Amino acid sequence: MFDDKVHPKSLDGFKSLFETLYPSLCLFANKYLNDMDTSKDVVQEVFIKIWERDTPYPNFYAIKSLLYTSVKNRCLDYLKSKYHRSMVQSSDLDFDHMVSDTFFYTQLTLTDTYAQLETAIKQLPKKSEAVIRLTLNAYTNKEIAEELSISKNTVKSQKRIAYKKLRHTIGSLLNIF
Amino acid sequence: MTIFRDLFKLSKKLSKALLENKGLQDLETSDLFLDDAKTHIKQHLSNEAIKENLELLNQIDKEADWKKVEQSISGDGKLKPRKHFSISSFYKIAAAILIFISIGYLTINNSIENEDLDTSTTEILAGTDKAILTLDDGSAIVLDEKKQYKNAMVKSDGERLTYTKANTSSKRAFNYLTVPRGGQYQIALSDGTLVWLNADSKLKYPVNFVEGEPRIVELVYGEAYFEVSPSAEHQGNHFKVLTKQQEVDVLGTIFNIKAYNDEPYMYTTLVEGHITIRIDDTLEQLIPNEQTQVDLRTNQLTKSIVNVDYDVAWVKGYFNFKDTSLKDIMRVLSRWYDVTITFETQALEHVKFSGLLHKKQNIEDILNGIKNTKFINDYDLKNKTITIK
After folding, report:
1. The pLDDT of residue B70
2. ipTM of the complex as predicted
3. May I ask the CATH architecture of the domain B131-311?
4. Is A118 on the interface with B (CB under 8 A)?
5. Which of A28-32, A96-100, B189-193 has the lowest mean pLDDT?
6. For the domain B82-118+317-389, what is the CATH code?
7. What is the number of domains present in chain A?
8. Which residues of B3-34 are buried (b: 16+ CB within 10 A; e: fewer)?
């Protein structure tokens, strides 16, 4: 039982949910729509629907699954709509592929992987963040050192710091849900 | 629905592998995708693809877009009247989970910055490996992380006490292992059975088990996780765990018993194998993932199916809560951090949270995380007493 005092605050909870999942859901929608502005609109609509529905979900992973499924369905609805069909020439072959679960699961896995990477990297101190971003871009230590005007040894030590922290971050991420 | 859980798990593993510059082994061995899809995923986890997608993620202005959504859900400028109290617990749980996740991060961020800081004497520390061993003659030995101990029958490496099997076991001698609040300890009994003892727990056991008789130990109070050495290796001799209210009969299996004196219920959770529980004259058989809950006043037993991960997380260095009331969470924390926790507002005891905590985490990080959910107004920390306001 919750008293009135804690009530109005639940908007904060919804906001945290939005802030955590909105960017990755937009990225995900964009895999279907190939149009970031429409993707954002679709995801916002889904969030508003979820808020209005106001039904309880057992845990975070259930909400996350539901959000991905809802966004997918809305994207497919949009692609099926007359408006879209009249605007864009797309083959039925593409659409058949997009309707499949395989496409859904593949894009979900990719998007979530990108989002996990981004979340983990964002947790790093600024210097190691820059080093890790370049590492992901396949820069060698030497190239990173040149790019950031730091010594090769600093690159190495920043990498060590980053890996130590990332192990911890991802480690704890892995154990959630 | 479980496919989602598996997909999210896979993506976490993939991101980990990518950050560590390792191969995508988990994708190769996964049975979630056929080869075509695997190839597609691999192609889209190339350096270029990652760079492109992370940039896209960063270009999304979630603050600005939140304002749009917020406007739309709060109606046309005026505040929507609150729908009853049904404002779903889902947002609350969501918030709580998110907060717990960020606590995980908090710890990491703090860990480096705090490295040079001296720990102040008033600081409340997480529990450590420690226990008191009471020998048959009544003498007590303090065991902790930094100390090694050895006698003819038993040795300790600081975190685990290991008994060796004696050749002749005529005399029946008992030892006690008492784990204080703020402690935990492992013990390997002479038959090879492993027991993890949680904070504020006490186990009574024979130094050696008598051949041809059931192997009996007693959980005097507290929580213990057992990995019982199979009966087949002990001439079929059963293993029994006694608590005040019940007897658990085991052939060789993994289970957890939680039997604290200050809790209304006793829980027995089976992870692997098969056990039989006896209470008074009632027998109850458990299969894996089943849990019995016994009301300590009435001895009434109820059985349910649970996700055992939550019950045995403590053995692996975590606390894992799922829709757990703040009161129950605080009870667990108070044992591990050896603090007293009181609630100024009784209603808060029943607010539920889910989330995963590291046992090495600073308690103030946890409290701040809970405070940030806005479900509690504040907390007060004085002389090892925490007041939730």
Report:
1. 87
2. 0.83
3. Sandwich (2.60)
4. yes
5. A96-100
6. 3.55.50.30
7. 2
8. ebeebbbbbbbbbbbbbeeeebebbeebebbe
